[in-house]
Known about the structure:
alpha+beta
Amino acid sequence: xxxxxxxxxxxxxxxxxxxxxxxxxxxxxxxxxxxxxxxxxxxxxxxxxxxxxxxxxxxxxxxxxxxxxxxxxxxxxxxxxxxxxxxxxxxxxxxxxxxxxxxxxxxxxxxxxxxxxxxxxxxxxxxxxxxxxxxxxxxxxxxxxxxxxxxxxxxxxxxxxxxxxxxxxxxxxxxxxxxxxxxxxxxxxxxxxxxxxxxxxxxxxxxxxxxxxxxxxxxxxxxxxxxxxxxxxxxxxxxxxxxxxxxxxxxxxxxxxxxxxxxxxxxxxxxxxxxxxxxxxxxxxxxxxxxxxxxxxxxxxxxxxxxxxxxxxxxxxxxxxxxxxxxxxxxxxxxxxxxxxxxxxxxxxxxxxxxxxxxxxxxxxxxxxxxxxxxxxxxxxxxxxxxxxxxxxxxxxxxxxxxxxxxxxxxxxxxxxxxxxxxxxxxxxxxxxxxxxxxxxxxxxxxxxxxxxxxxxxxxxxxxxxxxxxxxxxxxxxxxxxxxxxxxxxxxxxxxxxxxxxxxxxxxxxxxxxxxxxxxxxxxxxxxxxxxxxxxxxxxxxxxxxxxxxxxxxxxxxxxxxxxxxxxxxxxxxxxxxxxxxxxxxxxxxxxxxxxxxxxxxxxxxxxxxxxxxxxxxxxxxxxxxx
Length: 627
């Protein structure tokens, strides 16, 4: 696991070592074990690598790595099938100088070119410079576990694992992307390929870039996507057997390391399944790590303890409390470097910091919800898909009738009127509103006149609408799964874990995000994922053999912090001091009276916690990067 960066000049300028060192320093936390810099003979290309040594701890794993006197690579990630590919390559005459997976990527690229990506099983972001052809090849893994960001203009191409490194370069003028901020208010993250900074982009998951340095031509190509179009008709038992088989293989591959490993354990379905599988594959007790809360409705302690006791893990806990949030948040918003509102980043950082005291690699349950419909919003989607068949009949008479009846004040009639009104929206728009921070109507209230006018022609819902169209499935529920898999998962959840873990030099691996598991899950009929109101039905059935039913069939708590309670105390006062400060940089974007109203009227029952958190982290992001 590493941090990578690089710079390519198209004009008569030359890459300086001092420029590369600036980028290296900004991503030092991603690779504290080693630093490497390469500058091409013509000084038009430079590569940077910061190494966190996981496999082949010797100096032979040093990067940037050369191959055949022609190729140079800087690589971030892990290739779990590298030993299998190495054997094939050796039979074809290839010879290797190290035991690292990095050298295998170079050999595969030498043999297959761009098609090398089909041979890689793992998480990765890398760049290969070809001295002979004067080209650069950059790629990101299928699902977006590892980040890759870049800047391009007529004179220079700059890339890095984190845009903080890109911002160190003299060619970069920091400028806000206002429409990215507008989208952030809906989703709580900046959807790819944007970042919040004008001109700096994210390479999307399952994509690669080819750059011809002489002609300045750049091509962006997609090499993989989750395909829901083909369903397999198997019995429940056959599905259960297949799920357990691929989970075991995926977990075993992710336990390969030359350093200590452990696992995050919430006691939920996914993390319990991973820990149970790891325990069966290990002769030593697995080290497990859990965040606990004083607030009982958020506390998963007893569920995690049940798994820890059952599998005799070496278990560690950390109590999450709100007292230090005002000290932690400014640093955390800097680490996340883009506008980012997922409050569970706080506890992900806390548990990562705890785990790093004991291990260098951590396994987690990320991807279980996206593969097997673990979210409540799919209940609403299921309902709307079913009722859409009848709403064309119901709406003409139903809307006027419920409008009149709603005036009586009866809650049932109000809900019926609201539901029928909302049913006019496209299904993709409704799916956005199930889980967004600010709806389009909410934005009109919170935005200042200036920001309303600036963004009036940009509909953030179209991002999900476009995903629904691109999925090319026959079931709108699979459209929604595709949308989550290609946007919410990489831009929110995987970003959360990557930044939190790598900020403390911890490598996180996700068995459920092996592309073999994803491709298998895509072939499972939706009605086996959500059946009779049971989320992740077929996954739970499969895990019954290794996880107690009390853990599988309990109410889902979700991995989050108690904002509803925390915003009734010290956090509320801190947010007020930041958001309503006369020097707040977001003042011209938002209606201060509306923010004041939310702060004043927030209670555990009238909960504005997530909205206030989004606004608070945005202001802190502004202060970190534009103050």
